[in-house]
Amino acid sequence: MDLLTMLSRTFFDFASMKEVLPQLLATGLVNTLIISLAATLLGTLLGLLLALMGISPSRWLRLPARLYTDLFRGLPSILTILLIGQGLARFSYQLFGPTPYPLGIFALSLIASAYMGEIFRAGIQSVERGQMEACRALGMSYGRAMRQVVIPQGIRRVLPAIVNQFIAIIKDSSLVYLLGLMTGQRELFRVGQDAAVLTGNLSPLMLAGLFYLIITVPLTHAVNVIDVRYRTGRRRLTAPQSGLKEVEEVLKRPEGALAAQPLTGNRGQS
C-alpha cells in the first residue's frame, strides 16, 4: 500500500463520512452552536461590566476587575472547565438535571468575559476624550454619554476582536465533552470522535473539522468586510463635475447684467 492510498483511507474515507454526517448535522452542529452562542452572550455582558469596572475611577471596582481578568486569562481553558464542571456538578444536578451544558456554558462564559472585558476596555479608551467633554457640555450625564456615545463607538472599533473571540469560543466548545455527554448532548468534536473510535478511521474527525471551518472562516471574512465598511463608510460613485459649469452660466447671462447689479447697489447706498 503506497502512502497516498494509506492517507486516503485514514483521513478521507467518504463512506465513513457519509455515515456520520446526519449525526453531525442533527446533533453535533446544533449543540455546538447552542453552547457557543450562549457562552458568547453571557461572556459579552460580563465582559462589558468588567470593562466599565476597569475604567472606573474607584480602586474598589478596578482591583476586582483586574484580578478576575488575570485569573481567567491565565488559567488554561481545559482546567477552568474541569474545575467548574466537577466542582459545581452536585449543585447543577439539583437545578438542571444530569446535563453538563449549564456548567460548560458557564465556564466558557467566565473565560470569554475575561478577554471580552479587555477588548471592550481598549475600545472604550480609544474613543477621544473630547467626545465625553462635548457630551457633558451639552448637558448629558456621564452614564447617558457612555451609553449613547462612547460605548457604541468603542464597540464598533473592536468588532473584529469580538468576532475573533466568538470564533475562539466555538473551538473551545469542543472541551465540554470532558464533563461527560449523553448521546443527544454531543457536540461536533464528540460526535466525530465517537464515530472515529467505532470505525477505527479518522475521517469522521476530519468531517467534524470541516464543519468548524465552515462556521469560522466565513465569520472571519465577514467581519473584515464590516470593519472596512465602518472605517471607510459607504462611498457613492458620482461623475466628476468641472468648475467650468459656473463659467458657462456667467457667459449665458445677458450683456450688461453684471454691470447693472453694482450700479443698483451703489444707488441704494447713496
From TrEMBL:
The keyword Transmembrane helix applies. The keyword Cell membrane applies. SUPFAM superfamilies: MetI-like (SSF161098). It is found in: Cell inner membrane; Cell membrane. One of its GO terms (cellular component) is ATP-binding cassette (ABC) transporter complex. Keywords: Amino-acid transport, Cell inner membrane, Cell membrane, Membrane, Transmembrane, Transmembrane helix, Transport. GO terms for molecular function: transmembrane transporter activity. Residues 29-223 form the ABC transmembrane type-1 domain. GO terms for biological process: amino acid transport. InterPro entries: AA_ABC_transptr_permease_3TM, ArtM/GltK/GlnP/TcyL/YhdX-like, MetI-like, MetI-like_sf. Its main location: membrane. It is a multi-pass membrane protein. The chain crosses the membrane at residues 20-50, 71-89, 101-120, 166-185, 205-226. NCBIfam families: HEQRo_perm_3TM (TIGR01726). Part of the binding-protein-dependent transport system for glutamine; probably responsible for the translocation of the substrate across the membrane. Belongs to the binding-protein-dependent transport system permease family. HisMQ subfamily. This is Amino acid ABC transporter permease.
